[in-house]
Fold these 3 entries.
Entry 1:
Amino acid sequence: MTRLGGLRPRVTLLIVGVVVVCIGIAFAAVYAGTARELSARSRQDVRSDMDVLARAVSRGSPSSRAVAARARDYLAHEPFRPTSHVLFASPAGGSTVTNQPELLGLATADNRESAAQQARENRAGRAFLAASPGFSVHDLPDVGRVLLLVRDLRVGGRVVARAGVGEPTAASDRAKRAVRDEFLLAGALAALAALAGGFAVASRVAAPLRRMAHVAARVDAGDLGPRMEIGDRRDEVRVLAEAFDHMLDRLQDAFDRQTAFVADASHELRTPLTVIRGQIEVLALTEHPDPDEVRRVEKLVGVEVERMSRLVEDMLLLAQVGEEEFLRPSVIEVRPFVQDLVRGLSDVAPRRLVVRAIPELLIEADEDRLAQALRNLLRNAIAHTADDGAVELGVETAGGRVLFVVDDDGPGIPPDQRAAVFDRFRRLDGGRARDAGGAGLGLAIVQAIARAHGGRAWAGAAPSGGARFVLAIPARPS
């Protein structure tokens, strides 16, 4: 059962609420406009009848008797009907003349009405006749609400009579009620349609989200295989689903890499441990081992322990990538930095290390990490060149980046394997296979350091036919 706090009922109620509010605003505007239009027409009709009555009563002698006679003559042709006006004229000093004397309490009581009803009619009639000049609204028994216009009629500047024209508002009231009822009916139908349409829209919007929640639950349970099924949608839901699938792909890739990394690391650690255990077991079988054999085993164990130490250090370094303290940048002068780096390696490397012209540059980087990455590149080049081979190091600038370029004259790297050499524990076939002393993490560390600086590393072909490695980091002005 769908909870009230779910997405579908909330979206549905929101749509219905918007539709109801819009219909309410439209109803208020149309109803107010209709009421104003009907009121304006009624007032215009009343004014027109008043003008006619005033002309008929005012022309001629201003005496009360003459005014009353003209009023009776005019009203004789204007009997009251439900759709006509209630007219009266009160000559100064004379009796009131009207086209509906019984309605205004000016005639004898109707035998069909009680004394109380007649008294009520008389009071309403007196209030009607005593209304102030201008427009006013009165309730008359048997008629209902009446819009009344009273005007003083003057002849030669003297008031000769008070005239009144009243129009029942029943017709306009019926028109307004009809507008109201039609809007209520239309609003109810629109609200039902909005309810059905809103539920359909909400279901369409919520369906992929429910699928996403189901997929997320499976992922949380450890299954990275399911993906969103988005069909042929071309909306924001598709964008969200594609982003979700892309996240799962990256998560799957990360888990695969982690699994491979753990497997490779286990293998790399198992090999030296096996060697150490085997040598110690051989040594233990001899009751009085030869000192030379002990020294040999000691040397071999030391080499393997050193290899494991380097492997653990490299793995710890790669595990720290992305942490806040991984880099501690400072301003570095490139020329002395490179010269000191090469000088330290040339003392221990049996190769010709050539440093090309280095421009005067200041960069912002972590000096220790950058030196570690360049040492890895230079040692990799040294390991894959002959005893009389040459390794060159140059520094260039291009596209807002500083490029550290390491070339060697070794066997080179096949084009289809140049991207893979930066993978962890990556082994290559052929002349540039990993040397016996390495753990296969050196180039992975180079790439990690480059990316931590906002750059990258890549492999290519050197002009001498060997391999070229480039470490590029953003150049920052001094």
Note: Residues 7-58 form the longest helix (52 residues).
Entry 2:
Amino acid sequence: MAFSVGTLVTYVQENETPLLTKSIFQGKTVDLLLSEGTVQTGIKTTAKIALLATDAIFQPGTGCTFTPSGTTTITQRQITVAPIKVVEDLCIADLNAGFMQKSLKKGYDNSLPFEAQYADLKAEAIAKQLEIAVWQGDTTSLNANLAPFDGYLKLIDAAGTAIAANATAYISGGAISSGTGILVSNVKSIVNAMWLALPADIQGYDDIRIFCGWDVFYKYINAYTDQNLFNFAPTGSEVSIENGVVIIPGTNYKLTAVHGLDGTNRLIAGRMYNFVAGTDLEHEEEKWKLMPDQFDNYLRFQVYFTFGVQIAFPDQIVSFKLT
């Protein structure tokens, strides 16, 4: 008689693609990149980011002679994606002795009574870890969740061309040391230094974001509320304190809180087109599964996807780091 593994509830089978997409794009940073169109799909290992730049040389408009001038430059930066998988074995028999036993079907049944909740929570957990890796990823890290690919912080620091905002030129009183740290008393100066340090040729664009951790974000909010300036920033569907986004007073720039920078004491600013992410989402192995294991009587959860990030123009980035 053949061994029968039974069937699962149809939740995962019917929602495999949405769950995989949720795992990748539910994090705030990647969701912003998706909305800005800087997520490249179809990357299985590496791909080139084509960077186009051109100038415009004015000439006298008189006469009949035309002299070609100006240069259009095409350069490339490489984005590398890493294969990532999450695997967990669930022994349904472990639930027999607990309060969940009343939710189990009678007799032997290798299905999960709370499959939908499990799948949603797992997707959220993956998205949360990916959000952190997007910023703090480091292929030399001993932390398995940070090791698959290099994140924005490492890429920016390795390029060595970002503008350092923690300098006397931008912060009154001079650079802020790690001994002092980011405080309610100095956080407004730090945030202002970020936009003051932006290269002149990108100042004023409405797609500029200044990213920080939620810890720094609420110190910034506190710095204003301590002065009873409760309405210093507009609210809306996206721009609101609850969503971790405020307009910096006197500018059109958005201070944006992301969990990927929590605890780092780092702030990063730049135009959104500068932040690029890559994934596959077209590969036959990129799947979300919750399936019976016919040999070990387990339910096996498995998700597989590829992901990586890159900075298009590192010299247009402003970076704050304590000295």
Note: The chain has seven helices and 13 strands.
Entry 3:
Amino acid sequence: MKANWQTRTLAELCEIFGDGDWIESKDQSAEGIRLIQTGNVGEGVFKDRGEKARYISEETFKRLRCTEIFEGDCLISRLPDPAGRSCILPDTGERMITAVDCTIVRFNSKQALPEFFNYFTQSRDYLSTVDGETTGTTRKRISRSKLADVLIPVPPIPEQQRIVTLLDEAFDGIATARAHAEKNLQNARAIFESHLQSVFSQRGDGWMEKKLEEIGKTQTGSTPKTNDRANYGDFISFVKPGDFNTDGTLDYDKDGLSESGAAGARKVPAGSVLMVCIGATIGKCGYCDQDVTTNQQVNTLTPSDGSSNRFIYYQMLTESFQRKVIHASGQATLPIINKSKWSALSVWLPPTITEQATIATKFDDLLEETQRLESIYQQKLAALDELKKSLLHRAFSGAL
């Protein structure tokens, strides 16, 4: 830290430092004075979330003696994630108050700029300090008194302004680069999905639609008794919805069954296609290249006519097949595809096994290229995040 910098507690820098108001559901109304909550506080940014906005009436405002907050005030969330994140209030065009788990910070303009502090709250040092002061079992939080004692580096105001200006410019550039990388990431996946849809919607001559039960053995998994630990071991992999990888392969190493446990389970031979048949991830697909067993949340197809399991897997990724899954699962709170519904789902098959294999190989190659591009863009995004952290560290150690 530079020689002319000081260190102050957060509370020492403020004209106002206090928590928001305790507003119960019964106190809220459809319009009036807007209630800003922890969900509106992003990491350095205000999240408007206008569609979820809540309000209290003028009468309630007076009855509860609420504290009004204004454009330019800082709000700090005392709840994760992460605790201690802050934002600067914009002009929302509405009168505002905030919830009790948000701390209101109004700085003494001769000591600290809100923009300087807002950047500081995104730094590793600050977030690590706050995290070290959080307590609680079910829901961690930092107390207002602990937050008040957090130490803040305080350069002279001109130096604070210089740092803010540099970070504004750098972060704008990083935001632009990030937007490009995210767009390229989306485009890489979109190209694969577009080709996938094109092949299966513009079918060639001789393609036939067949139910899954017509092309192989369909079954639903089974779950051994968890209280019998002898059922579990490393004799054969035991696949669950969480074991499906994004490329259709399966994570075989998470759980397994013993030989005795496998004896009472339904074996799924290598070369089968698998799909999650219940819950939020219904329709998620994969294929196995070794024998496995599955739990009751996974349906399987073992082709008996030599059909390519990867060809069928790729077809099950299409929007048209996924629509069939959703339609068959019904409108219940918990969507489900039972064995009879699974067996009745249909796919389109070319006239020869060779053609299936050729198409599947082309998709394999395209998927490999897509994943290569996605990896590049993910690395760029990670590098941009690391650059932001590095700039913040340099800024608040006096090295920017």
Note: The mean pLDDT is 92.
